[in-house]
Amino acid sequence: MEALMASYGSSSDSDASPPRRTNSHQFLNHHKESDRLPPPPLALLDPPNSLAISQTNHGVRVRSFPHVEGNFALHVYIPVLIPPAIRKQLIPIVAKVVSLVPGLHVVDADIPLCDLYKDHQKLEQVVLGREFHISLGRTVPIRAHQIDSVVAMLRQKLQSQRRYWIDFSKWEVFVNDDQTRTFLSIEVIAGGLSEITRQIHAVDAIYRLHNLPEFYMNPRPHISVAWALGDISHSLKRGVKEVNRYRTNAGTSRGHIFTCKFTGIECKVGKKSYTICKIPDE
Question: Could you give the CA distance from residue 189 to residue 169 in angstroms, rounded to a whole number?
Fold first, then answer.
């Protein structure tokens, strides 16, 4: 998930709803330099509120908050795996969108889909064979001394979760807060929505106690399948509309796209993962 973490401010949620708070400056830590220390790295000369941009061979990843020494990106999420049989059903749909909308990349990576979409086997393995996530909170920077407290409270608040089914029912388009990325996503609008919303509220309560920005006012749980640089929501929505027409004509349109079981909640802090709760296999 490292590439995705970098893309959202190390993975900020892509929902386009207005955030509750935008005072991200409160997390920046400014250090006083001693005369005996060597000169600071050039990266520290960037304005504190500037966006950190890292270029790759295939695209540009934009972080929603700059890297500060001693800060770690916090992300709380539900892991999601698309069942193998469903992946095969989704591949023609993803290939159709890619043919209609240039510039899409594999989510979690900087791999252009235009290099893959004609090879359905590669498309299935690289695009849909990975672990996806439903964000339960914003991805935000926290200090090292906050980690143990946040993880302990998350476990205490969310340890008694029960298994439920999650219905992914709608292809949707989201743009992140900075309009630097657009996402092709599958949204949860029915089964599992109330349970996920309660979990988001629980995470919000813990974020508040640690002075962290809460999630969106009206959360829309989803997984993101592909991304594009900038705000291309207009053209991507046209592609999604065409895909829905394609599904209807092919007789594959139904109440949901796929369903999976809720299996637990994970928390990632920097590069380290913590299991918050896990539902044992039946």
Answer: 6
For the whole model, what pTM was predicted? Answer: 0.75
Q: How far apart are CA 63 and CA 57, in angstroms?
A: 17
CA distances from 33 to 130, 145, 239 (A): 43, 22, 52
Q: Where are the beta strands (DSSP E) in 108-176?
A: 132-135, 140-143, 165-175
Q: How far apart are CA 184 and CA 162, in angstroms?
A: 29
Q: Which residue has the tokens 């997390």?
A: 27
DSSP E strands in 91-180: the ranges are 104-106, 132-135, 140-143, 165-175
Determine the Cα–Cα distance for residues 48 and 68; give it in Å rounded to an integer.
9
Report the alpha-carbon distance of residue 174 to residue 28 in Å, rounded.
Answer: 27
How far is 106 from 257, CA to CA, in rounded Å? 19
DSSP 247-265: HHHHT---S-SEEEE--EE
3-state SS assignment for residue 240: helix
CA-to-CA distance for 97 and 100, rounded, in angstroms? 5
| Pairing between β-strand 71-80 and β-strand 132-135 as defined by DSSP bridges | antiparallel
Give CA 83 to chain center in angstroms.
19
Q: pLDDT by residue (tens digit) across 40-93?
A: 343 333 333 333 333 333 334 444 556 677 789 999 999 999 999 999 989 988
> Closest Cα to residue 162, out of 204, 194, 185?
194
CA gap 131, 81 in Å, rounded? 5
**What b/e string do you get for 87-116 counting C-beta neighbours within 10 Å, with b at 16 or more?**
beebbebbbbbbebbebbbbbbbbbbbeeb
DSSP 8-state symbol, 197: H
Instruction: Give the pLDDT of residue 109.
Output: 83
